[in-house]
Design brief:
Structural class: mainly alpha
Low-confidence stretches: none
Shape: globular
Largest sheet: none
Order of helices and strands: HHH
Radius of gyration: 12 Å
Distance between the termini: 24 Å
Mean pLDDT: 78
Helix content: 25-40%
Strand content: under 5%
Number of domains: 1
Length: 73
């Protein structure tokens, strides 16, 4: 993942977290914000992961909340 060893907030910069989110959402290899062309859960919506980018919540927590239906994609 481009030399990034950890995705934890304490181990990444804001810019790295943006890259991590963009790459994880682009499963087909293209930019996908709001696309939903591949029926990706969350539809490539970056705002779902904004708390991670802002350093407020870890990816694990956001993903758990999404699975539990506490966060909408």
């Amino acid at each position: 993942m481009d030399g990034i060893r950890s995705v934890l907030i304490k181990d990444t910069t804001r810019e790295e977290r943006i890259r991590i989110v963009n790459r994880s959402l682009a499963v087909c290899g293209t930019e996908c914000e709001f696309c939903s062309g591949c029926d990706n859960r969350g539809g490539g919506r970056i705002e779902t992961h904004q708390p991670y980018i802002d350093g407020e919540k870890e990816l694990r927590q956001i993903n758990e909340e999404f699975r539990a239906g506490l966060v909408r994609g």
